[in-house]
Amino acid sequence: MSSQFHTEFKPITIQPQEIESKSFEMITEELGPHPFTDDQYRVVQRVIHATADFDLGRSMKFHPDAVEAGIRAIQAGEPIIADVQMVQVGISKPRLKAFGGDVHVYISDADVMQEAKAENTTRAIISIRKATSQIKGGIYAIGNAPTALLELIRLVKEGKANPSLVIGVPVGFVSAAESKEELAKLDIPFITNLDRKGGSPVAVAAVNALSILATERSERA
């Protein structure tokens, strides 16, 4: 007896670009009217595409200069600083490398782990301190660790960090929503969402959307 699984369902298409285009059409139709600018919507659209979560998409919040700041930073080859490897892995590298940029993550560095243990604190906090001590500007993409976002906010307030853009979308129950509320109070370019939802796929989607916009701008120039 054959154990092969059979189904009557057939996919609408198996062409990768058509799948993405059809998905974006469905997102636009289902989302309906929204308050986002055209460029902000490109970010929101990719966030929804990555998560299938329209409520998350609707909860996205942008500093007025966020998208432009992100595009400029990518075109200038500024580094992306990720809080965890999941964000680093998901970001499309070729588009960044075309501008001379790359993605950095410090959370598993030996010195970070050692210092976090010595201070009895999170590796995420120490990794942000290391990043800001080594990198001026840059785009911080935080999708996992609220403590990383809170530490970055502290350093910004103290004048010890000056990121070009903060994508702060950590997911979770402990301090996640609160950290994003604090980010939204800062007068620096940011992209966030104001609830517990978020995660590495959201941070990845936002960076990838910005790198696509940056590429399109350069191609039109």
UniProtKB/TrEMBL annotation:
Domain Cobalamin biosynthesis precorrin-8X methylmutase CobH/CbiC: 18-211
A GO BP annotation: cobalamin biosynthetic process
InterPro entries in the cross-refs: Cbl_synth_CobH/CbiC (IPR003722), CobH/CbiC_sf (IPR036588)
Pathway where this protein functions: Cofactor biosynthesis; adenosylcobalamin biosynthesis
UniProtKB keywords: Cobalamin biosynthesis, Isomerase
Gene3D superfamilies, sorted: Cobalamin biosynthesis CobH/CbiC, precorrin-8X methylmutase
Enzyme class: isomerase
Highest rank taxon of the organism: Bacteria
Gene Ontology MF: a single term: precorrin-8X methylmutase activity
EC code: 5.4.99.61
Record bears the keyword Isomerase: yes
Pfam family, one: CbiC
Record family assignment: Belongs to the CobH/CbiC family.
PANTHER family: COBALT-PRECORRIN-8 METHYLMUTASE
Name used for this protein in its record: Precorrin-8X methylmutase
Species of origin: Brevibacillus laterosporus LMG 15441
